[in-house]
Design a protein that fits this description.
There is one protein chain. The chain has about 300 residues and is an alpha+beta fold. It has two domains: about 230 residues, D-amino Acid Aminotransferase, Chain A, domain 1; about 60 residues, 2-Layer Sandwich (Dna Ligase, domain 1), CATH 3.30.1490. Helix content is about 35%, strand content about 20%. The chain has ten helices and nine strands. The strands form two sheets. A five-stranded antiparallel beta sheet has the order 7-6-5-8-9, with helices on both faces. Strand 8 and strand 9 form a beta hairpin. The radius of gyration is 19 Å and the shape is globular.
């Protein structure tokens, strides 16, 4: 079971409600081992994917739906596989000229015990390579916290990413297929925009449009769009970016953005005058199956 099950249920419920309000017939399926049989029984015209995290966001569900020849919303197998693996996606980002933070990948049994082995110092960010919603993520500001942070990340994944910490405002950029929809600037009450800040009542402030404007915002949105292209994304993505002293730094691309009441893409859409129902219909209209026709690596 994915660590993001509760978020998935909330996303699915919100999307089902939104589509029913526009007179669509919606069949909600709580995915399990019987999913292929449930899909055949439902005889769906299209699958609106609400499965965050493992299975739903790592290419496995996409591969199943491709094999069953059922159109689905969001990105295809390849883009989802790349985006879910933060270490692998960063390799593609670098090849495409997308700015990213320095990092090192740890594997179980081959952890770095001495922080002096890192090419960058503290603070650093320790996170599972393949988890979302900030599950298992720690900002390490002193050496004593490093070991516990690595242990926590390994509880969620077999490999761990240790990244240089970039100080600066955090933004999320929504990209619709081949165009930037807009951005939101995130102002968490606490130092880190964690799971509770994303999905709870934490008092996090969201600025739509961002307080950043002009050349700074344009640079952030450009970096996000390049990251979206680098992975060959064909659907709606949300790219997280930090604006550091030297410019924007892309953290990750989310190929299945949340659609809950507190989710960022619906906030961005509302901020540019796109109702939630229109956003869902946009996704349905562009549902597809099979390999993406988009290239993966683009020059800077």
């Amino acid at each position: 079971m994915s660590s993001e099950r509760e978020v998935s249920l909330r996303t699915g419920a919100a999307m089902a409600l939104g589509l029913r309000s526009r007179d669509y017939t919606v069949i909600e399926i709580d995915a399990g081992r019987d999913l292929p049989a449930r899909l055949i029984e439902a005889r769906a015209d299209v699958v609106l994917n609400a499965l965050h995290g493992t299975y739903g966001e790592d290419g496995r569900i996409q591969g199943l739906l491709d094999w069953m020849d059922i159109p689905y919303t969001g990105d295809g197998l390849r883009a989802c596989l790349l985006a879910m693996d933060k270490a692998l996606s960063k390799q593609f980002f670098r090849l495409s000229g997308v700015p990213v933070a320095e990092d090192v990948v740890l594997y179980r049994g081959r952890e770095i015990a001495d922080l002096s082995e890192l090419s960058f110092g503290l603070p650093c960010v320790v996170k599972p390579v393949s988890e979302g919603s900030s599950v298992g993520v720690t900002i390490v500001r002193d050496a004593a916290a490093y070991g516990p942070a690595v242990k926590l990340a390994f509880e969620a994944c077999e490999s761990v990413l240790v990244e240089q910490f970039i100080e600066g405002p955090e933004l999320s950029v929504a990209t619709l297929v081949d165009q930037t929809l807009g951005s939101v600037e995130i102002e968490p009450v606490h130092a880190f925009y964690d799971y509770e800040a994303k999905y709870g009542n934490s008092g996090t402030r969201y600025h739509v449009p961002p307080r950043l404007q002009g050349d700074e915002l344009a640079a952030v949105e450009r970096a996000a769009f390049l990251a979206h292209q680098a992975l060959g994304c064909r659907g709606i993505t949300r790219t997280d970016v930090i604006l550091g002293v030297a410019g924007p730094v892309v953290l990750e691309v989310n190929t299945l953005p949340g659609m809950t009441a507190t989710s960022l893409v619906p906030k961005i859409a509302a901020g540019v005058g796109m109702p939630f129902g229109d956003l869902l219909e946009y996704m349905l209209d562009r549902a597809a199956c099979g390999p993406s026709t988009e290239g993966v690596i683009h020059g800077a």
